[in-house]
Design brief:
Blueprint: H1 14-19, E1 34-36, E2 39-40, E3 43-44, E4 48-50, H2 57-76, E5 82-83, H3 88-91, H4 93-102, E6 106-107, H5 117-133, H6 142-163
Parallel strand pairs: 5-6
Antiparallel strand pairs: 1-4, 2-3
Helix pairs in contact: 2-4, 5-6
Organism: Rotaria socialis
InterPro entries: RNaseH_sf (IPR036397)
GO molecular function, one term: nucleic acid binding
Length: 164
């Protein structure tokens, strides 16, 4: 069984390494950026960058839910339903209360299993499209990664608009 993780190329410079299949050195723990992106039948929401710490229920209420509410209301008026998965910030009683108080319709945590196979395809489809729209060669730092993530969302929006 071939295991490419064991391949190493020792070279004097990048050009020499390129002669040996262009193996590139990677950071063991690259910088990460957490994002939230809502998907609706009419496209995707604005991208929410959740950059500076763990996302708990309060950050979710303060930073994510208003974006979903604004987008849903702008696109659908008062005739739409919000649904989320079983992540802890989503299922917290105060998050659920906020959703019940603000969204015109809500499929609450007790009515949707956290690993619903019916919606996994949507999740994977959006994630796959998002990842393919990022120019990973330009994402060399946290700042450029965030810039590329924002550009990817704009590209997805353009494609949705062209399909309509």
């Amino acid at each position: 069984m071939y295991n490419c993780q064991n391949d190493q190329v020792w070279a004097v410079n990048r050009g020499e390494a390129d002669k040996n299949d262009g193996v590139k050195q990677k950071q063991k723990f690259p910088q990460k950026v957490m994002v939230w992106l809502g998907a609706f039948s009419e496209g995707v929401t604005s991208l929410v960058i959740l950059d500076n710490s763990t996302v708990n229920y309060q950050r979710y209420i303060d930073e994510v839910l208003p974006v979903a509410l604004k987008y849903g209301n702008n696109v659908f008026g008062d005739d739409w339903t919000f649904q989320q998965d079983g992540a802890k910030p989503h299922t917290h009683k105060l998050s659920q209360k906020w959703c019940n108080d603000h969204f015109p319709g809500l499929i609450g945590k007790d009515h949707w299993p956290p690993n619903s196979p019916d919606l996994n395809s949507l999740d994977y489809s959006i994630s796959d499209e998002f990842v393919h729209q990022v120019n990973w060669n330009k994402a060399q730092s946290k700042k450029t990664l965030i810039t590329e993530l924002k550009r990817a969302v704009k590209r997805i929006r353009k494609e949705v608009a062209l399909e309509s």
